[in-house]
Design goal:
Number of domains of chain B: 2
Structural class of chain B: alpha/beta
Number of domains of chain A: 2
CATH superfamily of the largest domain in chain B: Periplasmic binding protein-like II
Strand content of chain A: under 5%
CATH class of the largest domain in chain A: Mainly Alpha
Largest interface: A-B, 22 and 20 residues
Number of helices of chain B: 10
CATH topology of the largest domain in chain A: MetI-like fold
CATH superfamily of the largest domain in chain A: MetI-like
Number of strands of chain B: 14
Radius of gyration of chain A: 24 Å
Strand order of the largest sheet of chain A: 1-2
Distance between the termini of chain B: 75 Å
CATH topology of the largest domain in chain B: D-Maltodextrin-Binding Protein, domain 2
Radius of gyration of chain B: 24 Å
Distance between the termini of chain A: 59 Å
Shape of chain A: flat
CATH architecture of the largest domain in chain A: Orthogonal Bundle
Order of helices and strands of chain A: HHHHHEEHHHHHHH
CATH class of the largest domain in chain B: Alpha Beta
Number of strands of chain A: 2
Oligomer: heterodimer
Chain lengths: 269, 280
């Protein structure tokens, strides 16, 4: 032994434990709100991107390129320090006032400039990637799907909603899950705009009692757990590729038939 | 022939204790004597000051002399005593051991008066005061109490957050990576105030292009009271140092020294919130 000892109780109990729990929950809150925002904005972006109007397509292309080619840290700083400043003073005063109804356990304030800027920043950034993944899913589809829908009298947004999107979602679900997991991990950068999420609290524990190793280890494990659970939930409850269930059933039937045949064959020997 | 082992008797123990006592007394040679008389007899006052802690004590890059707020006070005290000044440069960790080992008679080195330190040394009356202050928009209230439930910016890794929470449990503290980032949050109204040490805030405000939009609240969140440290059991020296400090306040020298290092136009400009000899 080199005399190194670890004191995990020093970061999991008392005030540090409270901070880590609060930070963990804040990471979950901002991930959920950010993911919902990202999904809505991605559908909007995709609708513009495949619209028959050239200016609408141009706008979508410009937004996607802007948000996916600039660092999210810079975007956070922009939303929090620059864009927030452009809001009317009375609105900003309302946001920074105390709102007991917007406080979730453990003491995490959602109606605050930090949370709004972080969730919005994560939503916009991730929407650019989601829209492109969805477009890849659309492109994998036969052109006839869209033509058939339009010829049936569906409008542009209805075609997207009822015909194209369900298939595109199923086609591109795996890379979409990756983007949602990225969103969760990128929320750690919001500690730079003082969002009291897990990374912020880990650093606070570190400067409070100098338990650097323990604090960062616990933080890492919590992120890993959250990522694994979130990934599994998205896979289990997400859309399955078109025809996947039928294919799986066929594979299963085929396998058991083969196994039966092998058993039968070895039984004969 | 070897001496046979002698069993330890009470006499041996007593003489050993006496020897240890003499040794201890020798390590603290000035403890018993009247240091004020010794200083006058020697014609030299030895003072511990910082050599790398501006504006309290640092080395002037052009003259290589020690300069600073504390250095000027040490000079003024030596002058009032009518003796030569010998400065012993030190750092925060070494200043008290220097005094305890009898190498200096006074510590004039930004030494905060605390109950723990008062157990091992005596303090003069305060000659400086600092503490946590709030920087707020110029249009805000001047009352500290109106920020009790405010959103207050602090800097990660500093003690400001804990001090803030102790004083105002209802406040919402937001920590930023550094002080300019905290100022940016104050500028756009994300926080109502930022909390920092008064000298740091003064330096920050001096450099800000939009300094007219902000002000530092007159009342402090926490107070750090700075005194001169001297060995315990020296009533004559303590009384003399206190008398000199009050004298420096009366004849304006103390204020002149303050203005030289913390007055308007200096890098650490900050209003003087205390008067030596007046407890508030």
């Amino acid at each position: 032994m080199t005399g190194v000892s670890f004191d995990f109780a020093g970061v999991l109990t008392g005030q540090p434990g409270q901070w880590l729990l609060s930070g963990f929950l804040m990471t979950i809150y901002v991930t959920v709100v950010g993911a919902l925002l990202a999904t809505l904005l991605a559908v909007l972006l995709l609708g513009l991107r495949i619209a028959p109007l050239a200016p609408a397509r141009g706008l979508a292309i410009a937004l996607v390129e802007l948000f996916r080619n600039t660092p999210i840290l810079v975007q956070f700083l922009f939303w929090y320090f620059a864009a927030y400043n452009l809001l009317p003073r009375s609105f900003r005063d309302y946001i920074t006032a105390e709102h007991p109804w917007a406080v979730l356990p453990v003491g995490n304030v959602l109606l605050a400039p930090e949370f709004i800027a972080a969730a919005w920043g994560l939503g916009v950034f991730t929407a650019a990637f989601l829209a492109e993944e969805l477009r890849a899913g659309l492109n994998a589809m036969p052109r006839g799907q869209k033509e058939a829908a339009l010829s049936q009298g569906f409008g542009h947004w209805e075609t997207l909603r009822f015909v194209l999107l369900p298939q595109a979602l199923a086609n591109s679900w795996q890379p979409l899950v990756t983007q949602y997991l990225n969103l969760m991990k990128l929320s750690s950068l919001a500690s730079a705009i003082s969002l009291a999420e897990l990374t912020y609290q880990v650093r606070q524990v570190e400067s409070y009692n100098a338990h650097a190793f323990e604090a960062f280890a616990v933080g890492t494990v919590l992120y890993l757990l959250l990522g694994l659970v979130l990934g599994q939930l998205l896979i289990v409850f997400g859309p399955k590729p078109v025809g996947a269930r039928a294919r799986r059933r066929a594979v299963k039937a085929n396998r058991s038939a083969t196994a039966a045949a092998i058993v039968g064959a070895s039984g004969d020997a | 022939m070897f001496p046979s082992p002698v069993p330890l008797t009470r006499r041996h123990l007593l003489s050993a204790a006496a020897g240890l006592f003499a040794l201890a007394a020798g390590l603290a040679p000035a403890a018993a004597a009247d240091q004020l008389a010794d200083i006058k007899a020697a014609g030299t006052l030895r003072v511990a000051t910082f050599d790398s802690n501006p504006p309290f004590g640092s080395i002037d890059p052009s003259t290589y002399n020690l300069v600073g707020y504390d250095v000027d006070f040490a000079k003024a005290i030596a002058q009032a005593l009518g003796v030569k000044l010998q400065l012993v440069s030190t750092n925060p960790a070494n200043r008290i051991p220097l005094l305890q080992s009898g190498k200096v008679e006074l510590i004039v080195a930004d030494l905060t008066i605390t109950p723990e330190r008062a157990q091992v040394l005596d303090f003069s009356i305060p000659y400086f005061e600092t503490g946590l202050e709030l920087l707020v928009p110029a249009s805000s209230s001047d009352a500290l109490s109106s920020f009790a439930t405010a959103r207050i910016g602090a800097v990660k890794g500093t003690t400001g957050e804990q001090a803030l929470k102790a004083r105002f449990p209802g406040s919402r503290v937001l920590s930023y990576d550094d002080i300019p980032t905290a100022l940016a949050a104050l500028r756009n109204g994300s926080v109502d105030a930022i909390a920092q040490d008064s000298t740091i805030l003064a330096g920050l405000l001096a450099e800000a292009p939009d300094r007219a939009k902000f002000k530092i609240l007159p009342d402090r969140l926490s107070r750090e009271i700075i005194g001169i440290g001297l060995a315990k059991g020296q009533p004559a020296l303590l009384a003399k140092v206190n008398e000199i400090l009050v004298g420096l306040e009366k004849d304006g020298q103390a204020k002149a020294i303050y203005d030289k290092w913390f007055g308007p136009g200096t890098k650490f400009a900050s209003p003087r919130s205390f008067t030596i000899g007046v407890t508030n």
